[in-house]
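Open question from group meeting: does this chain pack into something compact, or does most of it stay loose? Before anyone orders reagents, we agreed to write out a predicted structure and look at it together. Recording both the input and the output here so the notebook holds the full record.
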Amino acid sequence: MDIKDRIRQTVTANPVVLYMKGTPQFPQCGFSMNAIQILKACGVASLHTVNVLEDAEIRQGIKDYANWPTIPQLYVNGEFVGGSDLRREMYQSGELQKVLGVTA
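C-alpha cells returned:
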C-alpha cells in the first residue's frame, strides 16, 4: 500500500484525525499543542492522532496528500479542515464546532 492509500485509509476510518508533531500528551511543537487544546475545548471525544515525527514518509506524504505545506493537519470525516490559523479562526467563530458535530 502506498503512502497516499495509507493516509486515505486513516482519514476515512476515523471521524477526527490530527496529523501532528508529537502526541496529545506530549506535543512537540506549539502549533500541535494549540490544535490539541482547541479540539479538547470543542469536546472532541474520539480523536485519532498520527505522530509525523515517527515516520518520515508520513511526514512528507501528508503534506502532499492535502497539498498543504505545514503540520498539524486536521481531517474531519475524511475532509481536510486546514492549518493552524484557519483552525483557530474557525474555532473562534464557532464554525469548527459545527464541522466537528459538537455544540459550542
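Observations to bring back to the group:
The beta strands are 16-20, 48-51, 73-76, 79-82.
The longest helix spans residues 30-41.
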